[in-house]
């Protein structure tokens, strides 16, 4: 005989947020036991609660809930080598653009076109990265430096490649030098393929709960509830094959183009000329096949798709690798009269990539405007009357979708800009390192030197924007001081204490000004990129360096900015890796900069297969299986309690449950970015209609937030039996203004952390458990 659900204990499933947490801290007990999971992600209980639902009847019928902690911090943190994933930042950013699609007006073709344009932009980033590696390894190192006696003598490790230093050794021929140097970008493509395949097996290979799809009717439909949303194995494998092939074909084109140009000189061997033309045709066919694979339909989310396109996954990269090998053999054929002069023909390549990326972003913006439909009805929680200055700022900023539906194109522009700036900066830095005096080498293509030159200009734009935001924050701090005194009833109170609280509230509003930052930076990069193209090709002839042919003032400014950009990219690389390593190893650093990384890696790899892995494809199935198993075994009484990013995981897991199980679950969120960040930047998935539908389908939802929290905020939904609003009134932070008997020492400003320290947390949890408790005992079987 099985006891009724009324005799079963309730379950409180705790999900931590950005900074990560230990099970001992989450459960407030030094003795914890892992009851499910592995070293990557697991569910823990206190040692005294291990048999709470399977032990004696007295334990099963207790009134207090059984707390469980789901710990997923190892999915996004670990050793310091993961900081190198930050080098894949452009891939992650363009993948974000895929999910920032505006809410569609039932226009399936426009939705598919939006995804196609993002996938093509992602493919262009792979080609750009590999082309930049070819520029560094093939052009600057093997062709220019090794082919110049003075430069080769300065770098002894290049001596065996130089015709003058090695006295005509076997590797001194230009084609053989290029073939040997091609191993570097080839190894880079292989590394990206390996990381993508390995991380998928480690993080994203967990199958979600298999169930029948729900009818997609009504405005509250979201793709997060589809059975196959968190299992993108087929698409990732297909895109991985296409991007790997694209990278290998880029290397083959870089090597083969130089050899073909040499064979087409008057008097060149007819056999090699014919082989070169056949090689060009093969490369073109391979490029068209790769683009066709990327253009195929995207994700299959309506069902759990376990198939893999084996004929594409295995054959396409293998064919590209074979074509690359034939190209290297062709380039290494002996050509006695071939000498390396000038630089390889890369100007047209990088110019074409920049033009293609600009056109894709503009087309993406046009499609986004067609899809844009983001209304927001004011609720009682959004009534500005009586609101403080900070609440009014948050309300105004959240009354619309980010950038009026253009968030995806703006972020795609940022991804392309990151790729261009990194390519130009690294190429210029390597050129300056190889040729310290700047007299031996021609340097990288002029477009890359222009892209390196825009780095100081971008920093100036960012400095001006930060200064403007700092001034607004200072003014908001002074405007908020009166509200702080009124709320605590201490006006005028201690000026320093009041100013401290007001400053924390004002600083928290900087998150709501994110769209302004993205809009300014993306617009600046678009204009600067157009200026770089004009500077590189606007005169009708290709200059050697940035600013050549321009007036003396412009030429001097361009070359000064180019030198500064070269050093800044080196400094930026060191800082990038240092900050990334600290963010992975230091919990306090993750609380400040980790939210951006966690938002980026929350979404599946639907546009770029080389982006960092999606931890939610492991975490969401874990939570879904645990909740479904509990509700079916015990009949319900489950509260999933999510903090920060954990609240987003909790909501995503609730969407994955069957409707009958979903009605047995209550949701408690605190410090949640589910509306403040996700609702604005990803309106097609976390928009007001989707959140309202989730609220109606689960048993109850309560949300806690503070005005001093820079990440969490209200969800702005009307209430039900649990209360008039889903949001509780903003929690006091600090709990007390001065010293009291309960708080004899000054209370700290908690901001985004320690929501459990507020008495309101226990009150809301008890209310949710009471809402789930059945009024009559269940039927015994």
From TrEMBL:
The UniProt keyword set, sorted, is: Membrane, Transmembrane, Transmembrane helix
Q: Which domain of life is it from?
A: Bacteria
Q: Which InterPro entries match?
A: AB_hydrolase_fold (IPR029058)
TM region(s), chain numbering: 113-133, 178-195, 241-260, 275-295, 316-333, 353-371, 406-427, 447-469, 516-537, 557-580
Q: Does the keyword Membrane apply?
A: yes
Name used for this protein in its record: Integral membrane protein
* Species: Streptomyces rishiriensis
